[in-house]
């Protein structure tokens, strides 16, 4: 089971966002202050989503029999737990290369980096969650057929069917579908999304940093 402790990246982000928000309040240009506070709030929203999804992943548990340990659904769920743990422990570097000398622009650039990183983490953990959900559905379907016993002759075709459906469901989990669903949810909630990165930008960030 993945334990939800306060990860280093989350502590770092919270500290940086707080510092940047305080700096913005000391800036005479109130328009810049307002926008940077909106960016800081967006980070909070993304981090809250990430935490909630991660917690749901950790609640998925299974105890397969030794003979079933390496069956696809069980192995997928274990991989999801491992991936969630790795993501939880992945650090965030607050240091920005060649930061602008202007305080307003520096705060803007840093907050945009944090929004990008938080968006990437939310995408990754949602993908893990959807894969874990699919694995649990497979486990439930398999248990309904076997009912605690071993497979009988009449069960083989049924088990193959749920294996096939499982593979299809996993293949249907795509980055674009996840981003589209988040976008619709965020728009409905009335969130400020002006600096939310495009999927291509998120994937590039993941490729470099994860």
List the helices and strands and how they pair.
Blueprint: H1 8-25, H2 30-58, H3 72-89, H4 103-146, H5 156-171, H6 175-189, H7 199-209
Helix pairs in contact: 1-2, 1-4, 2-4, 3-4, 4-5, 4-7
Care to describe what's here?
This protein has 210 residues and is mainly alpha-helical. Helices cover 72% and strands 0% of the residues. The chain has seven helices and no strands. It has helices at residues 8-25, 30-58, 72-89, 103-146, 156-171, 175-189, 199-209. Helix 1 runs antiparallel to helix 2, helix 2 (30-58) runs parallel beside helix 4 and helix 4 (103-146) crosses helix 7 (199-209). It is elongated, with a radius of gyration of 21 Å.
Task: Tell me the radius of gyration.
Answer: 21 Å
Strand content: under 5%
Terminal Cα span: 22 Å
Question: What is the β-strand count?
Answer: 0
Could you list the spans in which at least 5 consecutive residues all have pLDDT below 50? 1-7, 23-31
Mean pLDDT: 85
Q: Structural class per helix/strand content?
A: mainly alpha
Short description:
The chain has helices at 8-25, 30-58, 72-89, 103-146, 156-171, 175-189, 199-209. By secondary structure, the chain is an all-alpha fold. The relative contact order is 0.14.
Defining traits:
210 residues; mainly alpha
């Amino acid at each position: 089971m993945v334990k939800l402790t306060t990860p280093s990246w989350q502590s770092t982000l919270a500290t940086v966002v707080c510092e940047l928000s305080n700096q913005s309040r000391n800036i005479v240009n109130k328009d810049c202050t307002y926008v940077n506070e909106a960016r800081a709030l967006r980070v909070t929203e993304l981090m809250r989503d990430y935490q909630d999804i991660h917690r749901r992943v950790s609640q998925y548990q299974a105890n397969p029999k030794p003979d079933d340990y390496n069956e696809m659904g069980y192995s997928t769920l274990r991989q999801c737990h491992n991936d969630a743990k790795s993501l939880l422990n992945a650090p965030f570097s607050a240091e920005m290369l060649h930061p602008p000398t202007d305080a307003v622009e520096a705060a803007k650039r840093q907050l945009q980096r944090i929004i990008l990183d938080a968006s990437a983490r939310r995408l990754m953990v949602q993908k893990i969650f959807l894969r874990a959900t699919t694995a649990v559905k497979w486990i439930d379907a398999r248990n309904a057929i076997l009912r605690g016993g071993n497979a009988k002759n009449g069960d083989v075709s049924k088990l193959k069917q749920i294996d096939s459906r499982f593979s299809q469901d996993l293949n249907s989990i795509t980055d674009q579908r996840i981003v589209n669903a988040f976008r619709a949810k965020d728009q409905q909630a009335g969130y400020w999304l002006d600096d939310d990165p495009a999927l291509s930008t998120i994937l590039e960030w993941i490729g470099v940093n994860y």
